[in-house]
Amino acid sequence: MPASCKVQNMQTKQYEQAVKAAAYLRQQAPDVKPRIGIVLGSGLGAAAGILKDAVRVPYAAIPHFPQSTVAGHSGQLVLGSVAGVDVAILQGRVHFYEGYSPQEVTFPVRVLGQLQTEALILTNAAGGIRPGLRVGQLVLLADHINLQGFHPLIGPNEPRFAVRPGAGQRFFDMTGAYDAELRALAQRTGESMQLPLEEGVYLAVSGPSFETPAEIRAFQRLGADLVGMSTVPETIVARHMGMRVLGLSCVTNLAAGLAETTLSHEEVFEAGRSVEARLATLLQRLIPQVAAVLEQTEGR
């Protein structure tokens, strides 16, 4: 079989696997039709407690679903509701550095698309690069820089992944990757909680090692405010499908060379745990407002 046909078959296979995984999840929670999906990063998993009548499905039970091998990622998909809005929460994610392919890393977002999720809220633990950022601070993503060394959409295009008309194209605009309307909504919600949310540019690397001080200086010159090892592939795939994306980083450490302490995953995890309650409250207040924006957009 020619190589092009093998790759095409792989794309078709991934679509069929996503359909099968979504069908399994519908069986587990037939009354939940999530319009909003949330991915919780390192140390932030307890925020899934905001869901009412939650149905928890281990990743290991979902057909073809990748399983996290990293501490701080509990590895279950939680289906439920917040203020009458159905939501799907990925309690932990997988990463390229764990040995997964770009397609496997983004497979959970593909499955959310098959559940007809229209908006995706991505959270992560990030190193703070911009002067003035503090450990424990929440920062909205305004844009990103992809230095992970891969793109999750390389290979034949599969338009059937689209969740709205016009999406699923081979070439698509990433100018507004992080939705400006949802960012403004999050800022207003944060202000109502006395939780000011600054915006920043997130730079993604592959990991798993933390960056060197020289790399951080280079990233500063590139215009990065935050650095991490996730989120960007999920954003790309979500935008390919036509989802609206809101990104939110928790500054869990100052990047290499900006603090005297030695960087560690334990530090990242503990800093994430310290902000879980604020993140949970923010998400709880934000979800019904995001749903209202989706309704207004649908009616236009």
Q: What are the key terms here?
A:
22% strand, 36% helix, five-stranded mixed beta barrel, Rossmann fold, 300 residues
Count of extended strands: 9
Low-confidence stretches are: none
Radius of gyration: 18 Å
State the strand order across the main sheet: 5-8-7-6-9
CATH superfamily name? Answer: Nucleoside phosphorylase domain
- Content-based structural category: alpha/beta
Task: Give an overview in words.
The protein has helices spanning 3-28, 102-114, 180-192, 213-222, 232-241, 265-299, and strands at residues 36-40, 52-58, 76-82, 85-91, 119-128, 138-146, 198-204, 226-228, 244-254. By secondary structure, the chain is an alpha/beta fold. It has a single domain, classed as Rossmann fold. The chain is globular. It starts with a helix and ends with a helix.
Q: What is this entry, summarized?
A:
The protein is of the alpha/beta class and 300 residues long. Helices cover 36% and strands 22% of the residues. It has a single domain, classed as Nucleoside phosphorylase domain (Rossmann fold), CATH 3.40.50.
Topology at a glance:
Elements: H1 3-28, E1 36-40, E2 52-58, E3 76-82, E4 85-91, H2 102-114, E5 119-128, E6 138-146, H3 180-192, E7 198-204, H4 213-222, E8 226-228, H5 232-241, E9 244-254, H6 265-299
Parallel strand pairs: 1-4, 1-5, 5-9, 6-7, 7-8
Antiparallel strand pairs: 2-3, 3-4, 5-8, 6-9
